[in-house]
Specification:
The structure holds 2 protein chains of 2 kinds.
Chain A lengths: L4 H6 E3 L6 H10 L4 E7 L6 H15 L5 E6 L6 H7 L3 E4 L13 H11 L4 E4 L10 H12 L5 E7 L2 E2 L4 E2 L5 H14 L14 E4 H4 L4 E2 L4 H13 L4 E8 L7 H21 L12 E8 L2 E8 L4 E2 L6 H6 L2 E2 L4 E2 L1
Parallel strand pairs in A: 1-11, 2-3, 2-5, 3-4, 6-11
Antiparallel strand pairs in A: 5-9, 6-9, 7-8, 10-14, 12-13, 15-16
Chain B lengths: L1 H14 L2 H12 L9 H13 L4 E4 L5 E5 L9 E6 L13 E2 L3 E3 L3 H21 L7 E6 L9 H9 L6 E8 L4 E2 L1 E2 L1 E10 L14 H13 L9 E10 L9 E10 L2 H21 L3 E10 L2 E2 L5 H12 L12 H7 L4 E7 L1 E2 L7 E3 L1 H19 L5
Parallel strand pairs in B: 3-6, 3-7, 7-15
Antiparallel strand pairs in B: 1-2, 2-6, 4-5, 5-17, 8-15, 9-14, 10-12, 10-13, 11-12, 16-17
Helix pairs in contact in B: 1-10, 2-3, 2-4, 6-7, 8-10
The chains are: A alpha/beta, B alpha+beta.
Amino acid sequence: MGNNAWIKKNTFHFSDFKDLNYLVREKKRKNLTISLCLPTLNEEETIAKEIVIFRSELVLRYPLIDEIVVIDSGSTDKTREVAKAFGASVYIADEILPDLEKQKGKGENLWKALYVTSGDIIIYIDADIKNIHHRFAYALVGPLLLYDNIKYVKAFYERPIAGRRKTRPTGGGRVTELVVRPFFSLFFPEMAQIIQPLSGEYAGFRKIFEEIPFPIGYGVETSMLLDICEKWGLDVIAQVDLEKRVHRNQDTKALGRMSFAIINTFVDRLEKLGVIKTQKKLLTKMIQYKIINNEYRPDIFDIKKLERPPIIDIPEYCKKFNIDQGTKKND
Amino acid sequence: MDYILKLPEYEKVIKSIKETIITNIVLVGQVPAPTFFEQNRTKVILERMSELNIDECSTDSYQNPIGIIRGTRRNMPPLFLVAHIDTIFDEDVDHNYIVKEKYIAGPGILDNSAGVGILVSLPEIFKKLNLHFKSDIVLAGVVQSIGRGNLRGIRHLLRGWSSPIRGAICLEGCDLGRLNYYSNGMMRCEIICNISSKQGWENNFRPNAILVLYEVINRILKLRLPQKPQARVIFGKISGGVKHGKIALTAKLGFEIQSDSEAMVKEIYNDIRDIVSGISHERTVDLKLKTVSSTNPARLQFSHPLVKQTISVMKTLGIAPASENSESELSIFLANDIPAVTLGMSKGDNYHLENGSLEIEPIFTGIAQVIGVLLALDSGECDG
């Protein structure tokens, strides 16, 4: 196919948005508010640094972000205490919309963040970034503030892996290259222009997020891209080069489970779009093997394909944001 | 002296921008800066300083990052605030910093990323405290300071500065309470022993480089060092050999000769040079003595107004001053007849380890003391 018109038009570098005073002025002019959401599960080692840097640079020095919200999946370390101590609003995911059945997963936290945050724009950033810098947030909102056609922005970067002592210059992105990119190439080649479809850093208008479903687990990034592209077209999406992101390395088995969830999401969306038809229902168990006492034993993980509906379909949400459920418009 | 009374209030205001101070320490500290390879850190320091809209921001020809805040009196000589930006950690060490409720941890934080992060935060702090100075304030990060760097950055900066300098404060990460105002004469040396690695039976019983250095150390220890002028030899580093069961063919010893008399430093150096030549000759080994760096003794008297005012500032803030000699940027200022002190910014642990940690709460007192001493210098009270 080789069509790279989108990549030329909708790809930016973080330095394109370095003029923070200009971003703040545009935000004020457009009368917008911005929320930053950090989904967490045992992130005591990195959460404080993220909050401190975002507060210093994008709340106190340049008033770009109006609130920093941590949505926690039930950390057993001091993530919540530390986040509170540095001024973030902290929520336990299970306590948000408590009447709904409880689910665990990053997607669940992101979806519930829509209910507790108030911004017109929401920035989602993973809480395990070692080399966190405020560009991770301002570069994501830059295209949203400066380009009227762009409604959703995705990050991409070089991904060195931090070891115990040393930082390796390359690596990461294995699931992208081995699973997501082949799927995009097979079924949605124009989306292969998205350099890092699984990056955990993105921002978008609430209006976009509230109208799409959120898988509760690893499939959330993939489904978000597919749904936004299907509903509004690729042109509302932009990507920003953040240059470098140092993260924790995951072992191959964990990546296998992640791939399972992502493939599940792909198949689901392909079926809904009428692209493929599966003859039988997909199973929900990922089977891996481990050696114990020279014997191969199965390690079975139940990875159910659970999905939250568009939050605009939840009456409590509509009530809180004064949305008429009949017309789905703000009163 | 009004400013002395305001210091406790300043401390509270400084704390109100703790996020900015921590951010600067982290953003600077996470960029590796081993001596001679400080370019990336220099870039970050300049970026941070230029964002704060200070009057001038650039590097000198030695790549020392420098920011200048213009004073209100045109002809008043400038005041310097300096922090060395190099650390002992290599580029390939993971420089990830961790922020916890009570401390920040990471390689090089105490020596001297905290000092640099605070230096970079000062323009924002001055703004927050609404402080304006009569003198120009020169904020200088200096490169090539430690070890083989031999304080080249600060030497070059002062050599190239055309106008007189009124006074200086050197910032170090720890410990709060540190008050340096004198530096000994120092000569930092290395003795390197190399044994021929030729094969053949005649080389089977070669001398062991580690044992040769052991002999050198023993002979140095036998030197009679005077109590007046004070003098000492500090053995600080030793390395050698390849593996447990192999005779070591190379070994290296690092040491410093320190004295408050320049002549005594030279005398001890000459004695050690004779020891090295003698052992090299007698044991037929390649033994070399190299000088890595040196400074001359210089000091302020305890009665100097800068020392007195600094102690007064520290006491007002409840800091107990502790003094010892310091062979750092301070010695170069003093050797150039510029009144200067070195101050510690906070408390910490694991000084030169990768998990070095800096307590957050005392930082604000540490910065308040810098402001106090700077105001004392600017008021003219310290013009000796």
